[in-house]
Write a structure and sequence with these properties.
It contains eleven helices and 19 strands. The protein has 410 residues and is α/β, with parallel strands linked by helices.
């Protein structure tokens, strides 16, 4: 399998030289250490003015000493003005390189996943910056977040068809990241017919993901390895799933034998999907459309108790300047959740905010516990699954934190 993944990578035929993007003195150190991004202030604009390039154009990146650093795509309007796709002079951006990248990515996923339900391509970590591909059986949902990937989408689609042979492909290009790149927002079929909802198989459960109208690609594969954290705690338990989206945590709790599960979310369409997913798995789940903070405060005031509370919010800190408010929000939401636990209960506390480091979330949990006079024990930790591999030189690829926290009195 691995040999086949690498077998197709042959040098490109000689072609016309690409335009050069030259870096300033000593601004090649980060690229040489393995990072893939070039920032606009690192470019020698006197030698190679950014205004001379068009969004999505393929370029050669060279140091001020004329050392070849790699092939990239450029966007002169973006702070991250170039992203490397290849460091080998023989392999330029294009269809054959995409085929190779996807074959290598597929080989990794096939080692870990028994069915084709996973993130097939995770951007920089899989050597395709700005490209996310989620696989739902015989259908792929693709998000392109950069001008370079948008410009080469036909080559990417051809490579995806060659490697995976999907029945259908959906462009889900409506993320906020595209605005920063000056790209339009759209959702449209690239191949075949894609229904509004696609099936996901995860840990013995069956789910429907709203790929056209849901968040991101419709499903959060990044939490798949974390949801089993509930296993030892849910049998016969009363479970509260906060920020539930389409109910992945809640349904897994019900399948694990929970006596009662309630999902809270502010989105009526998401809660409708919770009910669909509950029915699909022959379990019963209560739903409540509400702001998470308001719903928890009302339950604390009513002195309700749950054996397990899952708090899996959207990113509270999307930018570094949001961090102080985000830290306060994480502490508050965890403190409210703890007040609903009995003398010995489980809190699953998550964060998908890259700017919030693991230690910051642990600190928020600990401060919440001490404020309430409780003891917190982190009994398990989780992060992204193997379909979201971390790039050692790019800390931005590591964003997900999940802690199973036992909360006791005294």
């Amino acid at each position: 399998m691995i040999d086949d993944a690498f077998a197709d990578l042959l040098p490109d035929e000689p072609a016309e030289a690409l335009p050069i993007l030259r870096l300033r003195h000593d601004e090649d150190r980060r690229l040489s250490a393995g990072h893939l991004w070039v920032f606009s202030n690192e470019v020698d604009v006197a030698a190679t003015p950014l205004t001379g390039f068009t969004p999505g154009q393929a370029v050669e990146v060279r140091s001020n000493r004329d050392k070849f650093l790699g092939y990239a795509t450029v966007n002169p309007a973006s702070l991250i003005c170039a992203r490397l796709l290849s460091r080998d002079t023989g392999f330029r951006p294009g269809r054959s390189l995409f085929v190779h990248r996807l074959r290598v990515a597929l080989a990794l996923r096939e080692r870990y996943y028994p069915t084709p339900h996973y993130r097939l391509c995770y951007g920089e970590s899989d050597g395709l910056p700005g490209c996310v591909i989620d696989r739902f059986g015989d259908t792929c949902v693709v998000q392109l977040a950069t001008a370079g990937m948008e410009a080469m989408r036909d080559d990417l689609l051809a490579a995806l068809v060659k490697v995976v042979k999907p029945r259908a492909v959906l462009w889900k290009n409506d993320s906020s990241a595209r605005t920063l790149e000056g790209l339009p927002s759209y959702v449209e079929e690239a191949l075949g017919t894609v229904p509004d909802e696609l099936e996901v198989l995860e840990a013995g459960g069956r789910f429907l993901a709203p790929v056209r109208h849901g968040q991101k690609t419709g499903w959060f594969y990044d939490q798949a390895y974390n949801r089993p954290l509930l296993g030892p705690w849910v049998k016969g338990a009363r479970v509260l799933d906060v920020f539930s989206y389409v109910g992945a945590w809640g349904v897994q709790a019900a399948l694990g034998g929970a006596a009662e599960v309630t999902c809270i979310d502010s989105s009526a369409p998401a809660l409708a999907m919770v009910q669909k997913n509950a029915a699909l798995n022959a379990v019963t789940i209560g739903i409540e459309k509400a702001d998470a903070f308001d719903a928890l405060e009302a339950r604390v005031e009513a002195k309700e108790r749950y054996d397990v509370v899952v708090v899996d919010p959207p990113a509270f800190a999307k930018r570094r300047k949001d961090l102080p408010k985000a830290q306060a929000a994480y502490r508050r939401i965890n403190q409210l959740a703890m007040q609903l636990l009995p003398r010995d209960g489980l809190l699953v506390s998550c964060s998908c905010s890259w700017h919030l480091e693991s230690g910051m979330l642990i600190d928020a949990v600990q401060k919440a516990a001490r404020h309430l006079g409780r003891q917190a024990q982190i009994v398990q930790t989780g992060g992204q699954g193997p379909d979201h591999p971390l790039h050692p030189a790019i800390p931005e690829t590591r964003y997900l934190k999940a802690f199973a926290v036992r909360v006791t009195h005294g």
